[in-house]
Specification:
Number of strands: 5
Protein name: Ribosomal silencing factor RsfS
CATH topology: Beta Polymerase, domain 2
Order of helices and strands: HEEHEEEHHH
CATH class: Alpha Beta
Subunit structure: Interacts with ribosomal protein uL14 (rplN).
CATH superfamily: Beta Polymerase, domain 2
Radius of gyration: 18 Å
Structural class: alpha+beta
GO molecular function: ribosomal large subunit binding
Strand content: 15-25%
Strand order of the largest sheet: 1-2-5-4-3
GO biological process, one term: negative regulation of ribosome biogenesis
GO cellular component, one term: cytoplasm
Largest sheet: 5 strands, mixed
Shape: globular
Number of domains: 1
Length: 139
């Protein structure tokens, strides 16, 4: 008993679109299907895999899958084939890999549990006034 392997053709247009143009297309796709609480995280210098991560919530598994499908559709319109799409079956967390931009579409409870925004932005924010005062007093 053998299963046929799915062949995914990946390609980037020559020349590939700029990261800004790709982000614009992702934003448009998310807005089109009313994704919730979209956050763009610049991970240049933190990750060698991608430049930006976009995290967005859907209201149901169907909504999550639809947003991911729309991102793929809009990217293809730009001439970009995704390098991979993971999690479509369960559709609680669908990842769309567009090379320079990775899109995470998640149910709110899954997003809260994994806290990707917090994970990738640790150390980015300057200390608050309270922390700055404590640091001065310690000296």
């Amino acid at each position: 008993m053998s299963n046929q392997a799915h062949v995914i053709k990946t390609r980037l247009p020559d020349p590939p679109p700029s990261v800004d143009k790709l982000l614009d297309v992702v934003r448009s796709a998310i807005e089109e299907l009313k994704g919730k609480d979209a956050v763009e995280i610049d991970v240049r210098g933190k990750s060698s895999v991608t430049d930006y991560m976009v995290v967005v919530s859907g209201t149901s598994t169907r909504h999550v899958k639809s947003i991911a499908d729309e991102v793929v559709k809009f990217a293809k319109g730009l001439g970009v084939m995704p390098l991979g799409v993971e999690g479509e079956r369960e559709a609680e967390w669908v990842l769309v890999d567009l090379a320079d931009v990775i899109v995470h579409v998640m149910l709110p409870r899954v997003r809260e549990f994994y806290a990707l925004e917090r994970l990738w932005t640790v150390g980015d924010q300057p200390p608050g006034d309270d922390e700055a005062e404590e640091a001065e007093q310690a000296q």
